[in-house]
Amino acid sequence: GNNSGANLTTGYENICIGLNAGVALTTGYDNIFIGIGSESAENTGNNNIVIGNYCVDGAVNVTAMTAIGNNIISGKIGNDNGSVAIGYGACANLNSVVIGYEALQGGGGSGNLSGLADSTIVGFQAAQNVGLANGGDITAFGFQSCSSMPYTYGVNQGVLAIGYQAGMYSVAQQWASGVNTLIGTQSGMFASGPGNTYVGMNAGKSISGASGGYNTGVGLDALNNASAAVIGIGNTGVGNSCLIALTSGQENNAFGSNAGNSISTGSGNISIGDTTAANVVAPAFSITTQNNYISMGSTSTTNAYINVAWTVVSDQRDKTNITPLAAGLDLVKNLKPVAYQRKESRDSDAAVGPVRYGFLAQDVLAAEGDSNVLVDVDNPDQLYFHETSLIAVLVKAIQDQQVLINKINAKVFENERA
pLDDT tens digits for 177-191? Predict the structure, then answer.
């Protein structure tokens, strides 16, 4: 072709086909340049394969590059040694593999691609316009995955994003802070904190400003608050739509479909199995802003089994405001033991589960009076009974009764002596 290889001096074993193909090549060798203007600026590079019109028009002194496609762009600064770029407008960079229409095109922030090395970018516009001056080690697979990640100096290193628009607007902090792993359609789309792992469609997607870090979300929509940015750290959610109301809450753990999906600012909570067999979200306790709560099972749970009794911490050193118990025999005399079965739902009288013995929270509340301890009234729509606390009341009742028995015995003894 006209002007192809026109400036060769000591270069050898080169193939230049097309108008201005390899026109600047001088001492380079073992290169293949095919296409109009293909690698028109290269002069001393070797072992390159460049195929396509205006393909990598601008790279200088490059070695072992493979570029196939029209208008493939090379790095603006530095070199593209060992790179592979395939697809219209794909952008080559040092030791990187870039495959797809306009993949990595326009990236680097201020036109600087020198730091975008050691990456694997595959997909239509994958990592396009990504703002990475000193990033790199990006693995992006999927349509627009890691596309438009904002430019922040020294970050975005080591990101793994797989799926349609996965990590599209995310910012992953550098190695010292922990990198992000995002797998699934739009997973971690706006995640801008470090050390997150999101697996599943829309997992960790949230909205702009989601700066929370070290979170783990596994499942469809896990940790995906669609109306407020997730800024909490250290949360773990496994199950579809778990922790979807989370905002600033930290160190929460939710397991199961829709588990913990009311937790917003609460921290240190555990929520397990909130959904009924009828696929109704009805946790045993709906945690929202509370801290250090545990909710296990749903309101439809009929049986709970464990092989041994719970061993509860009861160390005096952990307690304060210790006073003798006043409630005793008088309270016990007003309790109303009942036999019962659980309802299928509040809208039905159908019984489920075995016959049980126990108390009605409303009766216990009435017996306690104003100083209620045995009944938890934090949720007026769902009263809870602290059964283990009743043990202390029963012991006190026995002691009160023994005092009465002793008095009666003393009186009988006096009467017998008389």
Answer: 457 899 999 999 998
